[in-house]
Amino acid sequence: MKIFSFGFALCLFPFGLSGQWERCGYTHLLKQLKEKGQHMAIEQIQEEAYSFAKQNGPQKSAPLYQIPVVVHIVHMSPEENLPDSLIHQQIQVLNADFRRLNADTNLTRSEFLPVAADAGIEFFLATQDPQGNPTNGITRTAGQPSGLFPIFDPFSDNVKKTALGGKDPWPTSRYLNVWVCNLLSGFGVLGYAYPPAGTPPNWPADSAPADSTVQGVVIHYPVFGPNNPNATGPLTAVNRGRTLTHEVGHFLGLRHIWGDGGCAEDDGLNDTPPSDSDAGQLCDFSKNTCPPVSGPDLPDQIENYMDYAADSCMNMFSQEQVAAMHYILENYRKPLYESGLQMGLPNQTAVKISLSPNPSAGRFTLHRSGWASGPISTFLTDALGRRVTELKYINASSNFVWDIPTLSNGLHWCYISNGNHHLALPILIQR
Q1: Is residue 303 annotated as a catalytic residue, yes or no?
Q2: Which of 71, 234, 345, 361: CA 20 to 30 A from 282?
Q3: Among 147, 163, 156, 279, which Cα is nearest to 218's?
Q4: 372, 91 in Cβ contact below 8 A?
Q5: DSSP state, 36?
């Protein structure tokens, strides 16, 4: 029997108050939900989604889901007031990871390549606020947490409440709210997210958390965005912006792949092999902790975003994880992507991108206009989708020159993103 014990995703880094390698607060927080009678619907929703995923797999006709995001920067010091540029880069990382356009897909091991999947989910900073006014999708609040210990913590969710010194959410059914703050003053917590908590048919109305304002993701400020200058010491292992990728996975219904237990536990999906523990912020590709239930003896899938490996070796979602997220979006978070459709991305007709000369001998120029100010990210793949360059961030210049004399002849693709627009242009290398 599959054991489901997913109540509230609280992810801890291993240098907490006790100095122990305590990783997650599932047991404590699930107990709280059980005491309130609010755990049944969460578990039922997840079992629904995972059963659907295992029976149906990814849907080839699934739409591209585009989700509006509002980032609430709640700061108590200058270094916590992260710049817009880092926020834009974090959205780019989120999109690359969910679309499997991340530059490190070549690190996915061969045994997992058949199940590694493009989630078909994109995120963009909201272009309209709840009143319909134009916005950049970012709010900034001088945080003043109240209480005996003036810190932002996951147990009171005070960062999500203006009255408690944080910032009230924008409507959680229409926006993915992401709060960025000094979480527990750095005492071990990297981030947390609530999984879907709607009430399935035929379940008691009080079987899920009634407070919709807690829905969203909270991230500890040093690990928000790639190469955040505040990610020092042990946090350098998680400095590529993938804490948000992991937590958004929880927000869309995914569990940790090791099932938060030993080999007898399970995350509910077939294409994430069982393991008896998390990856421990390491990139140990020899880790193989459980015998196979059936089929080949696969190693632990530490490259999965829902494990706890270092950011440098996390690079994939599985097909069944993608199918489960689509089920959640269609059945329990549908207003989110419907809001994205209604809001619309910035006017794409004003965006003009070209590559010249094309064909090229390896030196060509990316011409762009109509993009909002701020950085864009680019990388090249060959015709089979294999990365041939690292991700490059381009800032102020409207044009950018590629000069790669080692490119082989043939068709290549140039991927371009600024968090709102995502384009892929062909370039033919011909010498």
Answers
A1: no
A2: 71
A3: 156
A4: no
A5: T
Closest CA to 75 of 174, 221, 201: 221
Residues 6+ positions from 272 with CB-CB distance below 8 Å: 257, 301, 304, 306, 318, 320, 321
Q: CA distances (Å), 59 to each of 66, 119, 128, 384, in order?
A: 17, 10, 30, 22
pTM, whole model, 2 decimals? 0.77
Cα 178 to Cα 188: distance, rounded to the nearest angstrom: 19
Query: Of these residues, 247, 265, 303, 320, which one is catalytic?
Result: 247
Domain boundary among 278, 304, 339: 339
**Measured between alpha carbons, how far is residue 286 from residues 231, 237, 277, 298, 311 in Å?**
27, 19, 14, 10, 17
- Within this chain, do residues 104 and 26 fall inside the same structural domain, yes or no? yes
Digit-coded pLDDT (tens) for 3-24? 333 345 666 554 443 333 333 4
State how many domains the chain has: 2
pLDDT tens per residue across span 76-109? 999 999 999 899 889 989 988 998 988 899 999 9
